[in-house]
């Protein structure tokens, strides 16, 4: 008898779980409360131009690499075209105007860094050795289930980024450069594990790409695959309750009283939202309290730019600009020194990209900055909110203009979003960029397990395992591994590239 699985939420974790289970014989139904699927994969259009909201580029997608295997297995490669970022500088980091380029591949990366730091060859090799060691130690990140090293995994999960770098790299400036892209994971000094940094560094150093036409193509492709295997993805289905008996979850109930009975339930919602939907005594009060009080990552303020036609040449790199000499503590700011840093990049609207049609500037913003408008809804937040956004946008554009003096002249118009916007469109807690902050100082209590005390209710998404496309998909393998086995899923993935 075919087992039924209901998945709540259509972010990357929910949709990829749906594909894996549908391919393995489950009757899958994905329920999405909004009219648009995708979570952080969503895009939006303004004035004829498309903008991404959450996921802007990916790594390790060359033939035979981890993301290539995952894309083939999930059948995303059928629908999604990739555009390679500059291999000599996929990331560019600038401290007070002094620029450093990140090149793809270990040899080229070290060679490029030695142009800036000629006396640091031994340190750079030691750093890359650790990155390689940490990445290879994780069987799921390397897709080699038999190759795992728990001692390495545990050591670098428990040590902070700055702790390991202080031990390995003797040049202060080089230490800062190596974490110049830390907004990709909202790292905090003394709190974020070195493993998080290592996985991100390895992921993009192998190869880096943008998604032609926007990240929503990934979401749409996953929906197509679920449907090919007999599953369903339903929008405007707002789940308000996960109904349970004494031992199991039995149904997801929507706000119009529709019941979706199933054998297995997977929630792609923030864990705090999931437990609010579930009144089972199997979820103890201590667990509920811990989940609700976990810290979330910082939010962001974004300026979405529409460029004048054929004026702004396409920038095939991601640019991280900092006012000072360090990328750390940019989330700690005042009105006077915001923004301390930003990410500026262009969207790959088409494969032929001599000129950019659109781009974004993104900088940290605390939820407290917009707390006074918390009870308002999109489009109805008042003139003071619009003025707040305009002032922030102009300040952010002015900051970027220090590095790109002609930027303002190339802008036709721009749009903005705050942590409130992000919260409402993607369902993230307090508009946090990457969900729950994995603070190593909190020990195991900072991590959310994919299993719950309700045996047939599982969790997926960026709050389980890690954020980003690789972190979420690795978490998907872990979650679905409860039903199929992660060994079998990895075998199937490996088979897909042979």
SSE layout and pairing:
Elements: E1 4-8, H1 12-23, E2 27-31, E3 43-46, E4 49-52, E5 58-59, H2 66-74, E6 82-84, E7 91-95, E8 98-102, H3 106-116, H4 121-137, H5 139-142, H6 150-158, H7 161-168, H8 172-178, H9 194-206, E9 208-211, H10 216-228, E10 232-234, E11 239-244, E12 249-254, E13 259-261, E14 264-267, H11 271-276, H12 285-293, E15 299-307, E16 318-322, E17 341-346, E18 358-365, H13 383-401, H14 407-410, E19 411-417, H15 419-426, E20 457-459, H16 468-480, H17 486-496
Parallel strand pairs: 1-2, 1-14, 2-10, 7-16, 14-20
Antiparallel strand pairs: 3-4, 5-9, 6-9, 7-8, 11-12, 12-13, 15-18, 15-19, 16-17, 17-18
Helix pairs in contact: 1-10, 1-16, 2-17, 3-4, 4-9, 7-9
Overview of this protein structure:
The chain has 498 residues and is an alpha/beta fold. It folds into three domains: 4-39 and 54-81 and 213-294 and 443-496, FAD/NAD(P)-binding domain; 88-206, no CATH class; 298-431, no CATH class. It contains 17 helices and 20 strands. 35% of the residues lie in helices and 19% in strands. Strands 8-7-16-17-18-15-19 form a seven-stranded mixed β-sheet. The model has no long low-confidence stretch (mean pLDDT 91). β3 and β4 (49-52) form a beta hairpin.
